[in-house]
C-alpha cells in the first residue's frame, strides 16, 4: 500500500505556499519553493527534510527548476540512497553566512557548503543537474587573495563508501568543486566544471577535485576549466584512476601538494594512473609537487597526456612554492612513468625535475615523451637533478634542474 503524506516545508511562508516535499513510500520528491513577497526562498531545509525521511533505503528526487540553497547541508550518514537531481542548485550570495557556517573538513582548515557521507549512495544529474556556486561574488571579494578561511568547497564526500556520481555540471564554484576525504570506492563520471572569472580578479583555488585519505577513486570523462589544479591527488590517496579528462586553464594532472602537514604528519600517495588527459592552456600537465616534508609517492603512471600550450608540461619538485629545504625533503618519489606525453610547451622547457638530494627519486621512466616548444624552433630542454638510475630512465636530460626552479616560467630558459 502506498502511503502518501504531504509535508508543508515552510509553514511560515505567507499565503500558505503549496507543499514542495512529497513523500511517497521511501521516495521523497522535492520541488523548488516559489518566491514570496519578492524574497528569495531557501530550499535547503526541505532538502534536509527529504534526506531525513528518505536518506536511508530510499530515494530523493530534486525535480526540475531552481533550488535556492541558503544553508549548509551536512548529510553524514546516508545509506542505500539514490539521489536524482533534475534542476539547478544555486548557493546564496550571503558571503558572511558562509564564512561563519561552512562545515570544516580538516584538510588545511578548509570547509565546505555541502557534505555527504555514509554508504551506497548514487547522485545522478542526467546532464541536467547544474550546481551554481555564484562564485563570481567569491572571486571578486577575495580580490586574488590566497585561500580564504571559510570559503566553501561546493561538494565534499566525507567518510563515504561506494558512491556513484554522474552527469552533473558545475558553474562558478565558490572554491574547489569537489573534495573526496576519508572515502573509498568512489566513482565520478561525466562531470562538466567551469569556473572562470569575468572580472579582473582570478578565481584562486577552484580545483576540479582533490582526493585525501581516500582509496579506490575512479574518475572518468570530465571537462574542467578552473584556473587551478584540475585533478589533484593529495596525502594518503591509494588507487586513484583518472581517465578521459580535458582540463583547461589549470594545473591539469597533479600529485600534491604533499608534505606540508602540522606536526610533520606523513603524506603517502600510492597507485595512481592518469590516462588520456588533455591539458589545454595550462600551467603544468603531468606533475608532482611536494614540500620538504614526510611521506612517499609510489607507482604513478601518466599515460597518453596531450599538452596544448602548457607553461611547463612535466615538473617534479621537492620544495613547491617555497624553494625551502629542497634537498632535505624526506618524501621520496618512486616509480613514476610518463608514457605517450605529447604536444606543445609554451617555452623551451619540456620537463624540469628536481628531486631531493637526501631522498632521490627512483624508478622514473619516460617512454615516447615528445614535447615541442610552441615557437616551433627552440630545442626542448629536459632538466634533471637527483634521479637515481637516470641513465636507464629514458629521460633525455639536457642539464641539471636548480632547486629553486619555478612552477611557472615567463620565457625561454
Ligand atoms: C506525490 O507523488 C505521488 C507519486 O509520484 C503522486 O502520485 C502524487 O500525486 C504526488 N502528490 C502531490 C500533491 O504532488
Ligand atoms: C563500489 O561502488 C559501486 C557504486 O559506484 C558499487 O556498484 C560497487 O558494488 C562497489 N564495490 C564494492 C566492492 O562494494
Ligand atoms: C562525457 O561527459 C559529457 C558531459 O560532460 C557528456 O555530454 C558526454 O556524453 C560524455 N561522454 C561519454 C562518452 O559518455
Ligand atoms: C568556460 O567558461 C568561459 C566563460 O564563460 C568560456 O569562455 C570558456 O569557453 C568555457 N570553457 C569551456 C571548455 O567551455
Ligand atoms: C580520451 O578522452 C576524450 C575526452 O576528453 C574522449 O573523447 C576520447 O574518446 C578518449 N580517447 C580514448 C582513446 O579513449
Ligand atoms: C597518513 O596516514 C598515516 C598512517 O598511514 C598517518 O600517520 C598520517 O597522519 C596520515 N596523514 C595525513 C595527512 O592524514
Ligand atoms: C600501480 O598502480 C596501478 C593503478 O592503481 C595498479 O593497477 C598497479 O597494480 C600498481 N602496480 C604495482 C606494482 O603496485
Ligand atoms: C602509447 O601510444 C601507442 C601509440 O599510439 C599505443 O599503441 C600504446 O598503447 C600507448 N601506450 C599506453 C600505455 O597507453
TrEMBL record:
<feature type="signal peptide">
    <location>
        <begin position="1"/>
        <end position="19"/>
    </location>
</feature>
<keyword id="KW-0378">Hydrolase</keyword>
<protein>
    <recommendedName>
        <fullName>Glycoside hydrolase family 28 protein</fullName>
    </recommendedName>
</protein>
<keyword id="KW-0325">Glycoprotein</keyword>
<keyword id="KW-0326">Glycosidase</keyword>
<dbReference type="GO" id="GO:0071555">
    <property type="term" value="P:cell wall organization"/>
</dbReference>
<dbReference type="InterPro" id="IPR012334">
    <property type="entry name" value="Pectin_lyas_fold"/>
</dbReference>
<keyword id="KW-0961">Cell wall biogenesis/degradation</keyword>
<dbReference type="GO" id="GO:0004650">
    <property type="term" value="F:polygalacturonase activity"/>
</dbReference>
<dbReference type="GO" id="GO:0005975">
    <property type="term" value="P:carbohydrate metabolic process"/>
</dbReference>
<dbReference type="Pfam" id="PF00295">
    <property type="entry name" value="Glyco_hydro_28"/>
</dbReference>
<keyword id="KW-0732">Signal</keyword>
<keyword id="KW-0964">Secreted</keyword>
<dbReference type="InterPro" id="IPR011050">
    <property type="entry name" value="Pectin_lyase_fold/virulence"/>
</dbReference>
<dbReference type="GO" id="GO:0005576">
    <property type="term" value="C:extracellular region"/>
</dbReference>
<dbReference type="InterPro" id="IPR000743">
    <property type="entry name" value="Glyco_hydro_28"/>
</dbReference>
<comment type="similarity">
    <text>Belongs to the glycosyl hydrolase 28 family.</text>
</comment>
